[in-house]
Structures are given as C-alpha cells and as structure tokens.
C-alpha cells in the first residue's frame, strides 16, 4: 500500500507561483512513476507531469516551460513547482503513483489551485 498526501494549493493571482508537495508513505520501493494530474470543473482528469524512479520527467504541452516536477528521495516527497500561472491552470491537483508491473495505481485526495485576480 502507498499513501499520498498533497499540500500547497491555494489562491494565487495570474502570473504568480505555487509549489505543491506530495508526501509519500508506505511501500515506496514499489513505485515506478510519480505524477501530477489535474481536474478542472466539468473536465476530465488530465496529466500534468510525471517523474520516473530514475528521475526522467515529462510534461503536458500546456505546462511545459512553466511547471517543474521534482522529488526528494530523502524526504519521500514529490513536488510540482508552478510558475507563470494562468486562469486555465485552476483545478484540483492530484498526486499519482504507479507501482512497478501492476494494473492498479494510487491517488492522493487532491489540493485546490485557484488562479484569479
């Protein structure tokens, strides 16, 4: 079992920055890839960024150059640094963990990010 707890969401003005954190506990050794997804009102949950066990990252086109995913293995925490935020970045952001070779995955409870003036 893996537990994921997000934090760091909030209200920010357009052009501002936020850093989300995802604290990971449980069977951490079983995780192949960590990721951040988001779900805006009336829309499907969508991939934002991923980071593999070896540190390889990938991003949705809409956030490339603005968002950075990273991890601190010593703290068992994954981060999403979000810069130059736009109104369209408003969503609930979810932390995700994909175990090695399994057809199930884990989700955090989500954290709200609102970009508004």
Main sheet record: 7 strands, mixed
- Proportion of residues in extended strands: over 45%
Average pLDDT metric: 95
N-to-C terminal Cα separation, in Å? Answer: 40 Å
Question: How many β-strand runs?
Answer: 11
Outline the low-pLDDT stretches: none
Helix coverage percent of residues? Answer: under 10%
Number of helices: 0
Ordered list of secondary-structure elements with their pairings:
Layout: E1 2-7, E2 10-12, E3 18-26, E4 31-39, E5 46-52, E6 57-59, E7 67-72, E8 77-82, E9 91-99, E10 106-107, E11 111-115
Parallel strand pairs: 2-11
Antiparallel strand pairs: 1-3, 3-8, 4-5, 4-9, 5-6, 7-8, 9-10, 9-11
Sum up the structure in keywords:
4-stranded antiparallel sheet; globular; mainly beta; 117 residues
Any overview of this molecule?
Strand 4 and strand 5 form a beta hairpin. The relative contact order is 0.32. Helices cover 0% and strands 56% of the residues. It contains no helices and 11 strands. Strands 2, 4, 5, 6, 9, 10 and 11 form a 7-stranded mixed beta sheet that branches. The chain has a 4-stranded antiparallel beta sheet with strand order 1-3-8-7, with no helix packed on it. The chain is mainly β and 117 residues long.
């Amino acid at each position: 079992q893996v537990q994921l707890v997000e934090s760091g969401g909030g209200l920010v003005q357009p052009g501002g920055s936020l850093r989300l954190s995802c604290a990971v506990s449980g069977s951490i050794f079983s995780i192949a890839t960590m990721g951040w997804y988001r779900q805006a009102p009336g829309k499907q949950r969508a991939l934002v960024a991923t980071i593999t066990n070896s540190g390889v990252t990938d991003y949705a086109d809409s956030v490339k150059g603005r968002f950075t995913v990273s991890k601190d293995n010593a703290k068992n925490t994954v981060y999403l640094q979000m810069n130059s935020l736009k109104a369209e970045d408003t969503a609930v952001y979810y932390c995700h963990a994909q175990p090695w070779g399994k057809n199930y995955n884990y989700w955090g409870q989500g954290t709200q990010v609102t970009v508004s003036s």
